[in-house]
Amino acid sequence: MSESVIREIVESILFVADTPLSFDRLANILEEFDRDEIRRAIDAITADCNSQRRGMELVLVAGGYQFRSRPEYADYIRRLKKVKPARFSPSALETLAIVAYRQPVTRGEVEYLRGVDSGGILKSLLDRKLIKIIGKKDIPGKPLIYGTTREFMETFNLKDLASLPTLREIEELADTDSDFEQVPLPLPETA
Amino acid sequence: MSESVIREIVESILFVADTPLSFDRLANILEEFDRDEIRRAIDAITADCNSQRRGMELVLVAGGYQFRSRPEYADYIRRLKKVKPARFSPSALETLAIVAYRQPVTRGEVEYLRGVDSGGILKSLLDRKLIKIIGKKDIPGKPLIYGTTREFMETFNLKDLASLPTLREIEELADTDSDFEQVPLPLPETA
Amino acid sequence: MTGSVQNQLFSEADAIACLVRTEAFEGPLDLLLHLIKKNEVDIYNIPIAAISRQYLEYLDVMQELNLDVAGEFLVMASTLIQIKSQMLLPQSIDPEVDDEKIEDPRAELVRRLLEYERYREASMELASRNLLDRDVFARSFIAPELDALPSAEALPELELFELVDAFRRILAKVPRENFHEVGSENISIADRISDILDFLQGKETVDFEELFAGSNTREYIVASFLAILELCRLRMIRILQYEIYGRLLIRNTVILAADPAVE
Question: Are residues B73 and B95 in the same domain?
């Protein structure tokens, strides 16, 4: 089968899918094609969307490929959708950032870092499926531990967790450990 | 605005629309553009899809324009549908939650809590291997007793049943509505 | 800043005007960072006396405006006062102690502020990304060409939270008195019940004490005992004793269902 037909097939599948499709899933669906052929098709589609300036682009998000509309046309699309875009309060964003960077994280750790009670916000992030309960931490009191979800990556347009924006380095404080981030938080045992 | 940008805008709108859009609707959304400009954009997109052999085409259905995957690739697209994860109905979720938290539990107890007949749902949870019959109660009527399965544990990535979050833990989150969160504080403009 | 200047700054009309055009503080750390930036002081060398004074003035204004000052703000106020007093004390009276080893009383606070600021910056960066359904849109609906096809189900996608939240909603509808506490103990009893049933599988009777063989922690024994009582109540096991003070035997009375059909 010609390269351009494979490209069309890949494009039609990505177009119809209602979630991002991982490369493996795509290769599974298109079992009769080489992985290399599929890879080339994805690359060709990505390049086409950009060079021909189409209304959408192919992005890698939450570990999968998905067509998304170009951000510069958001205003027009909002007129079609007639829904208010999801809003995030600063506290929700702060909490989400802490969960994203420090996961798995307990409520106690979130509250230590934010300096305020965060139960209500964690609950609403759970309701919005942006975070999930991963399990319980094996320390006294067995507090629940939280992590981010696939929806979080989809919403924030992240390829994977490793592509979170890097945290700004903190200048070393005199007499403190250099890899500050790894220092366990001085929390009471039961959170 | 250049013709090609209008084309991109029209394309992005048609791309995200979940129903066919009539020409009038499109002209309404894009009120700042001439109807002729929009018409040309639609024609250009239609031609492009055909000449460049893309994975989708712009078709006129039910009086509106809609992108559709090319019919000749229907076989591939059908495979996509086959692996779509099932959505859980609220009643199935409710029933599963009762079995998980009250096990070992009989159908009668489930129905007492839900207030409705739950035979069909228990059956479907059994079929999905999320619950199992542990045995029969040695009382008149010999009601079946249900519990969760190993597959249930795997679905939720649970080490043991003790790792299930407790009600109390969720209620603690919900109760602590940090009501100061949205209160704006006065800031002096200058110190 | 003197008290009188402060009063002028926060005359009632001003305060209300300010209220309209300013954003909320997320918490004490946010307020402190605001003060540090406003005063253009070095975060590594916070003039703790001045900053604490301003911090407390803010709390006063909040209270004057009848805003609910959350407990966290007050905790931070006492932390600031404590740091201030520590800094007033002579550094070291013990000549044996190396001066360099004494940590600045502000160090812990500075660390928290920096860490907090880091996450806040990250959160703003997150918010500035091209968000789905705000800046970019995807086809997250079933395409018409798929809709016509029969659906085949795969594994369910469920989160733990959905499960416990569903249970919470059910219990909210049921009168409380019909329901005893559903806490962590209950759950580990469920674990024990399931283990005991597995253990009894294919055996006619087992020794009572064998059911406690897994561990000898207090929690485990209590959970095992409660599990046995619950199984008795459900008539899934029977406890037998053939002679006074003799061994206790557990008999499995569960009739295993041959056909996993619903009654």
Answer: no
Q: How confident is the model at residue C215 (pLDDT cuts 50, 70, 90)?
A: confident
**Cα dist from C74 to A110, B121, C22, C55, C106, whole Å:** 19, 52, 21, 10, 18
Domain membership of residue B191 (yes or no) is no
Residues B16 and B62 in one domain: yes
The string of pLDDT tens digits covering residues B141-174 is 888 999 999 999 988 888 888 888 888 888 888 7
pLDDT tens-digit map of C42-59: 999 999 999 999 999 988
Partner B contacted by A113 (CB < 8 A): no
Contact C82, C117 (CB under 8 A): no
Output the pLDDT for position C147: 72
Count of domains for chain B: 2
> Cβ of C26 and A91 within 8 Å?
yes
- A72 and A109 both lie in a single domain: no
What CATH number has the domain bearing residue B11? 1.10.10.10
Of the three residues B34, B51, B79, the one that is the final residue of a domain is B79
Q: Do C72 and A71 touch (CB under 8 A)?
A: no
Q: Is residue B36 situated within a structural domain?
A: yes
Q: Does B104 touch chain C (CB under 8 A)?
A: yes
Q: Which residue has the tokens 């929690």?
A: C219
Are residues B151 and B128 part of one domain?
yes
pTM of the model: 0.77
- State which residues form the domain around B27: 3-79
Is this prediction's ipTM beyond 0.85? Answer: no
B95 and B172 fall within a common domain: yes
C124-145 pLDDT, tens digit each: 999 999 999 999 999 988 888 7
- Vertex C90, ends C85 and C96: CA angle to 5°? 130
* Shared domain check, B131 and B102: yes
User: Per-residue pLDDT tens for C170-186?
Assistant: 777 776 555 544 444 55
Give per-residue pLDDT as tens, B12-59. 999 999 999 999 999 999 999 999 999 999 999 999 988 877 899 999
Q: Using the 3D structure, point to which of A35, A50, A79 is the last residue of a domain.
A: A79
- Residue B69, in any domain of the structure: yes
Residues 32-61 of A with CB under 8 A from B: 53-56
Mean pLDDT of chain B: 85
Give the pLDDT band (50/70/90) at residue A101: very high
Q: Is residue A187 part of a domain?
A: no
Residues of A in contact with C110 (CB under 8 A): 173
Amino acid of residue B172: E
Is there a single domain that holds both residue A66 and residue A133?
no
Residues found in chain A = 191
Q: Cβ separation of B77 and A122 shorter than 8 Å? A: no
Contact A9 B182 (CB under 8 A): no
Query: Taking Cα atoms as reference points, which of A185, A153, A135, A177 lies closest to residue A20?
Result: A153
CA distance B129 to B152: 8
pLDDT at A67 over 60: yes
Question: Which residues 166-185 in chain A show a CB within 8 A of chain B?
Answer: none
How many other C-beta atoms are found inside a 10 Å radius of the C-beta of residue B59? Answer: 14
Pairing verdict, β B64-69 and B56-61: antiparallel
Please answer yes or no on whether A76 and B13 come within 8 Å at the CB atom.
yes
Distance of CA C15 to the CA centre of its chain: 35
Same domain, A171 and A94: yes
Structure token pair of residue A94: 């702060």
Averaged pLDDT, A130-149: 91
